[in-house]
Amino acid sequence: MADTSFTVHARLLLPLISLMSPAAAQGFGGAQTISTSQDFPTSVHPVDLDGDGDLDVVSASANDATIAWYSNLGGGTFSPAQTIDASASGARWVTSADLDADGDADLVAAVEFLNEIAWYENLGNGLFGGRSVISTNVNRPKAVDVGDLDGDGSIDVVFASELDNRVAWSANQGGGVFSAPVDISLLGLAPVTVRCADLNADGHLDVISGNSLDNEVVWYQNSGAGGFLSATAITSAAANVRSVDAADLDGDGDVDVLSASFADDKVCWYENLGGGFSGAQEVLTSSADGARSVHAADVDADGDIDVLAASVFDDSLQWFENVAGSFSAGQVISLAADGPVVVCAADLNGNGAADALGASRFDHTLSWFPSTGFTDCNLNGLADSFEISTGLEPDCDGDGVLDACQISADPSLDANTNGVLDSCDLTIGTSYCGPAVPNSTGRSGELRVFGSDTVFLNDVQITGAQLPLQSFGFFITSQTQGYVPIVNNSQGALCLQGSVGRFVGPGQIQSSGTTGVIYLDLNLNAQPTPTGLVSIQPGETWNFQLWYRDAIAGQTTSNFTDAVGVSFL
Question: What secondary structure letter does DSSP report for 427?
Fold first, then answer.
């Protein structure tokens, strides 16, 4: 059915029984209002329109025939509406792409009551050209998407119009000049939503549409150069489907599909089995009253794709957390938006986490909700995943945790205190005589040598880790390796022999303190021997070990780490 009753407050006609808890949303803060001036907003879209590096917001609103944008002034504070078009009667959907290849984001819109698909050139500095019509061969266009459908490097436009059952695309011939539209299908009943995605992983963008009157989500395979095959049904059980999206939800490398269906209150996903679908619905919820919008995004910055949804009659914005390919129950973002019709996600405050962005038609409001459900181990307000991906903070071992936070939690992971995890630090030499005999902590003391084996650089540090706390010790060295299992009632083995020198000069006998670590910067020109200090020469091999005090069952004893031999250049 055509959705043209733009002034009827349908919510007043129905009793509202919310099936979700109104408690504060896990993962999102309270609503931040962008605008309440757009009459019956139907679309909202985040994009950097002014080239300043943060995401602005563009909206379409039907009753006032307006497409407008709101400049992000920094940190998620937005300017008043700046009108792009005030005569786009029934403005229904808006999205963005660089259509003329000049380096900035232009806008594409479905203008329902004018029966137009149109674009607006971004002229720079927040200015836009007038409405440039791509096609008038549509009857009540509801949706538009963008992508390179013919593989020529320029961004094409695909659209769906409800009353003529049309899914079609127009080729970008360069510079934002478009060909006459080419029909993909005229057979689906009342298509109202459309997306581009490569569902069969052949390198060509396919097209997905939701056909509201036959309750179908279908896909059209791109056979290359923008030719499309007949529709393949993904499902026929999405009653009055209103929104589709596509993303790899189960982490298996192919693109799955999502739907929101208005008449059965469902938000569902459909697993891509590798170029095809079984038809099975994976239902995230069947109680989203008047489900209107679905969007895929990594909301909690954990590396998998979560799902957001908007439903009109229960005033609900909610999200579903992806946990290893399974989804949580809906978690409330807001129950205060009056008739939300669209939701999406984007980093609006620049902290690296995906915030929620929505439009609600009956209170004429555009709002965003700051994400709070992300990991920020160093408490600087930035998502750790953002700091890692942008290089602001290192994650040298690739485990998704900031190195600085790992070191703060366990200083022994950075035994030489250079701010780099020992597991990633540049070590030299070859370990031997290990693992050492466990000490009173139950662990074996470990020796590592960091720096350079080039003598003239004189850059070597030796470190003993996994030691008892508050234990003193010192390093020993020799050019000869050996093995003596028990030395003077020590618990450990001496792994040196011959002329053994001890680092016992000023400041060289140290305590393991509260970290269980002892380290020493070496002076290669002052290597201890029983007969005095010597300089290490290129071509020589020196071996190092740590002796340290310990206590077993209340009895004072000592132990050794394993040893490392370094051949110097």
Answer: B
